[in-house]
Amino acid sequence: MAGIYIHIPFCKQACHYCNFHFATSHRYKNELVQALLIELELRKAYLGPDATIETIYFGGGTPSLLTQAETMSIFDAVFKHYHTDLREVTFEANPDDLTAGYLEALSQTPVNRLSIGVQSFFEEDLRWMHRAHTRQQAENCIRMAMDTGFNHLTIDLIYGAPTTTDAMWQHNMQRAIELGIEHISAYALTVEDKTPLSKMIRTGQAQTVNADKSATQFVMMVKTLTEAGFEQYEISNFAKNRQYALHNTSYWQGVHYLGIGPSAHSYDGRSRCWNIANNRQYIKSVVNGIIPAESELLTTADRFNELIMTGLRTMWGVSLQALEQLDSSYATLFQQNIQKYISAGQMKLESGSCILTQEGKILADGIASDLFVLT
Ligand code: SF4
């Protein structure tokens, strides 16, 4: 089992909080798509001769800026160079791109899961975030996607923004539930370096983000969504009817993946590599047959820490056996260090795995880093 991630590095406008790699100029879009096709061929051996691609994820940036022909050219290259047995093909999309015609065209491709960047059903939030769509476009595109036959829909929501009151956050979740969404990814607004938001806060043009408010809205979210029948299968991901996102779940389970496109990351079990985050340099290098990537070999301690970090965020937890197989002395240390969290009711042991309780989940990142071994 393996996956392919394809990064489409273009957006209509820059959302204030975003630190992903993208350009708002689409001048090099044709060349970039051609470069993606070349990279798919150049890297066909990366995952090894026996790899079968089961998931593909189009992320960005904004994949819904691709035409149907461009999307199909990428699929053609994947099918030509890789052995596939596709279970899930996810396509990130923004509401302003999802017209009835676009959805119809997309439904003719292998895409079987749409991930829609809704973020909020309030104009006030959307304006503050500098999103390119309106509340009405978000609602309409969800209905149209369902009418077009997309059964696997996920929406992204953001909580903790200065404009988002608790009542508005409650309404956002309620609206998603009423619309029949079966998968929600919800993230606390964070202020990342070098984003317009961090500059706006520094210069007093925007209010700072309140951590207490984010924590309150996180607790509201867990309660509301679990009462509505969702499972919190990862800290930020909720699914009804076991509609787990297979591609993202495979990241958390250590499945190997190949990342194509500028800034995309890859993992082959031993090392990680990442492509240059610059569209022009990426294109120039790839057309000359050179993959513009840097890589790092993972040590046992790196892999041990990653198992802890990703495992603790999921409802399946960290497998003690997997830790033991990686390094028995690290595993013994881990077993000693978790006792205080078990006593505090923040962690439990179940079926050979160490799992965070509801109280522990809110502290997940801090607990994980406390349990890391030194690299
Ligand atoms: S559309 Fe997505 S990738 Fe583009 S700027 Fe907004 S959040 Fe970032």
What would your notes on this structure say?
This protein folds into two domains: 2-251, TIM Barrel (Alpha-Beta Barrel), CATH 3.20.20.70; 300-371, Arc Repressor Mutant, subunit A (Orthogonal Bundle), CATH 1.10.10. The chain contains 16 helices and 15 strands. The protein has helices at 29-42, 68-81, 100-107, 123-129, 135-148, 166-178, 196-202, 211-227, 246-252, 279-287, 300-312, 320-326, 328-337, 339-343, 358-361, 364-371, and strands spanning 2-8, 53-60, 84-93, 113-119, 153-159, 183-188, 231-234, 237-239, 256-260, 265-267, 271-275, 293-297, 318-319, 347-350, 353-356. It is globular, with a radius of gyration of 21 Å. 42% of the residues lie in helices and 21% in strands. The mean pLDDT is 96. The two termini are 29 Å apart. With 375 residues, it is of the alpha/beta class. Strands 7-8-6-5-4-3-2-1-9 form a nine-stranded mixed β-sheet, sandwiched between helices. A three-stranded antiparallel β-sheet has the order 10-11-12, with no helix packed on it. The structure holds iron/sulfur cluster. The site of iron/sulfur cluster has 11 residues, from loops. Iron/sulfur cluster is lined by residues 11, 14-15, 18, 20, 22, 60-62, 94, 117.
